[in-house]
Specification:
about 325 residues; alpha+beta; 8-stranded antiparallel sheet; 5 helices; 24 strands; about 25% helix
């Protein structure tokens, strides 16, 4: 009914049954605020609106106001993401040689104004319910199940010392050798629901044992795990805001100020093979929409395919089935 009668189609809809007494029950239909509003009924060409316990028809003025407010909200979202991109570029200056470095930024932001917290930082730390989740991403290919690596374990980075920011909280961890910062990872969450994970690294690391410079390769699985963590964190944020249907946009930005950064792929814990070379420049992927919780794994799989295509490769059947816990 919703597919055939509602225009444009609702992209965020949950329908489920709840038993009440014996073989009786109720059917629940739940949808979040739509970024495609207003919607109309195809047969009557009218836009319905809920007023208290009544379903009424929107006036032309209400349709115009809703369209204008939605446009303004999307413009504010665009400004937020632009600010995060500018801030990400400034973070490169913390590295010893910012001109010889690369980084990945993943920002998730709610499309509307449905998420608001009075504070995300309390009593010397982040509000525990809003803390970033610790998850393990696994890939199942045939009968084999393999855990994907992640940036935290690859580089020994574990941001845990949260500090307050203006209506936000921030945590970071850096890898330094003899006071030279080679790379760092940071988390950030805002009172309006925006959250971010970013990783930056120098092209070469100084091996503390040999004293020689060694090239830093980027693991594709680590980037996939990072994206999965952002998806899971955004889902946790909206549930804590008592708005589990709130839609998030996820923006992925890859910035490389140097050439020759190798991206490798490991299969079944065997030695990785060269997947591609990270191109120089700034690249922002098409936005990802997190709506229904049931589609989180599909979203992560879509990002992995996009990342391979970005490197001019096809993942094919190597992707298998992804899941995270």
């Amino acid at each position: 009914m919703f597919r055939d009668c509602v225009e444009p189609e609702l992209h965020n809809l949950e329908i489920f049954a709840i038993p009440t007494d014996g073989n009786k029950g109720v059917v629940i239909l739940r949808t979040g605020r739509s970024s495609y509003a207003p919607h109309r009924v195809k047969t009557t060409l009218t836009c319905p609106i809920r007023r208290s316990n009544r379903c009424e028809t929107m006036s032309m003025r209400e349709i115009q106001d809703m369209t204008l407010n939605l446009s303004r909200g999307l413009e504010r979202l665009k400004e937020k993401l632009s600010e995060r991109s500018e801030s990400f570029d400034e973070e490169f200056q913390k590295l010893a040689t910012p001109q010889d470095a690369f980084g990945i930024r993943m920002t998730a932001a709610p499309i509307g104004d449905e998420i608001k917290f009075n504070t995300v930082y309390r009593q010397g730390g982040i509000v525990e319910e809003l803390r970033q989740p610790v998850i393990e991403v696994q890939r199942k290919v045939g009968d084999a199940t393999v855990s994907l690596s992640n940036v935290q374990t690859d580089y020994g980075l574990n941001p845990s010392d949260w500090r307050p920011r203006l209506r936000a909280a921030h945590a970071d961890a850096s890898l330094s050798i003899r006071d030279v910062v080679y790379g760092f990872l940071f988390y950030q969450v805002h009172c309006d629901g925006l959250l971010e994970i970013s990783f930056l690294s120098k092209r070469y690391f100084k091996n503390p044992c040999s004293g020689n410079d060694e090239a830093n390769n980027l693991q594709s699985e680590s980037i996939v795990s990072m994206f999965a963590q952002v998806v899971e964190w955004a889902d946790r944020i909206r549930k804590q805001a008592k708005n589990p249907m709130a839609e998030f946009v996820i923006e992925v930005e890859i910035k490389s100020k140097c050439g020759g950064v190798k991206v490798t792929f490991e299969n079944n814990h065997r030695s990785g093979y060269l997947l591609g070379i990270l191109p120089m420049g700034t690249y922002i992927f098409p936005h990802y929409s997190l709506s229904e919780s049931a589609k989180k794994v599909n979203l992560v799989s879509q990002f992995e395919r996009d990342f391979w295509n970005f490197l001019e490769k096809d993942i094919g059947d190597r992707q298998g089935y992804l899941e995270f816990h």
